[in-house]
Hints:
Blueprint: E1 3-6, E2 12-23, H1 30-44, E3 50-58, E4 70-78, E5 86-95, E6 98-108, H2 113-129, H3 136-160, E7 166-169
Parallel strand pairs: 1-3
Antiparallel strand pairs: 2-6, 2-7, 3-4, 4-5, 5-6
Amino acid sequence: MxxxxxxxxxxxxxxxxxxxxxxxxxxxxxxxxxxxAVKNAAKSSEFPNIVIEDVTINTGGCFxxxxxxxxxxxxxxxSRDDLSNYRCCFTVNKFGNVLQISLIFxxxxxxxxxxxxxxxxxxxxxxxxxxxxxxxxxxxxxxAFNNLVWMILDxxxxxxxxxxxxxxxxxxx
Length: 173
């Protein structure tokens, strides 16, 4: 069963999107295999506190930049309180023998934008008043998790054991 992720300003905001294009001799069934390989790569990392979910992303809404659509994705994020609102999703669209892979970074907004901004501002204010709000170990965890996202793409490509005829990767931030 898939969890529904609604992309709208009151629940989830797309922070950034990155695209990866793979052209295969025969891409039949590779869209499904790719998403399974993403889940397997994330699981094999044994990264602590990682949540891996099959999701259905719904876009649209009153003030959305996106037309109303629904599509499957694999979402993962850290279950740690300080990182649980920062999520990433891999989606795949097949166009003939070409796979268009999207990596979407999402900020989950609990209770809407205003409570999120107040929480963010108060965390920043406390850090300024009391000499920091984050440890170096927590910072290392966050950096490792962010790098893991990009490594999962590399591991997935290798684990598919099918070399694309051509590939084009978006630049990593």
